[in-house]
Design a protein that fits this description.
With about 170 residues, the protein is α+β, with helices and mostly antiparallel strands. Strands 1-3-4 form a 3-stranded antiparallel beta sheet, with helices on one face. The protein has a two-stranded antiparallel sheet with strand order 2-5. β3 and β4 form a beta hairpin. It starts with a helix and ends in a 12-residue tail after the last helix.
């Protein structure tokens, strides 16, 4: 009889632990996602004073790089790179924002978007130029290829050439 009670208690404990609600590890809705969407909106409208307020003064950002930069440095880079475009935005159709919580309970918000911009003095969108390039080299113009091309072209146009690593120590 004691053996049966012990087995019953063990089963109850196992069922209790296995049925507990676990925290959601992936979501497409959260306050952090809304902050990211506001950040994108401020970028698209060039509202740099509102854009920078989304960051702490001490934030270190990795924007398409392993090197860290400050919010002020990223703001200056965005101001410089968007100055060569009459319009720019992320396509709403190809915009995805999601958040995950990793095993250490750190929250990570991911943003993917197709950047589109018209160069000052031209009626062509950078996305359209990327699609023509894809057809020229025989590639299917997938979203990742277009994003990489548009980002690369944006950097090349804004900096009159590719950015050279200055070999600064990463803090």
């Amino acid at each position: 009889m004691k053996k049966e009670i012990f087995i019953g208690l063990v089963l109850l404990l196992v069922l209790n632990f296995s049925c507990q609600q676990k925290p959601e590890r992936w979501t497409a809705t959260s306050p952090e996602i809304e902050i990211t969407k506001a950040l994108v909106k401020d970028y698209e409208t060039a509202n740099w004073s509102a854009w920078i307020l989304h960051y702490a003064d001490t934030a270190k950002i990795h924007h398409n790089s392993v090197q860290r930069i400050s919010p002020q440095q990223l703001k200056q880079s965005f101001e410089k790179s968007t100055a060569n475009f009459s319009t720019y935005k992320f396509s709403e159709k190809d915009m995805f924002v999601e958040m995950i919580i990793d095993d250490k309970m750190n929250k990570w918000v991911y943003f993917w978007g197709t950047w589109e911009g018209k160069i000052i003095g031209s009626d062509k969108e950078l996305k359209e130029i990327a699609e023509q390039w894809c057809h020229l080299v025989g590639e299917e113009p997938t979203i990742p290829i277009l994003n990489a091309f548009c980002m690369g072209a944006k950097i090349a146009i804004s900096n009159k050439g590719w950015v050279v690593n200055q070999n600064k120590k990463d803090d």
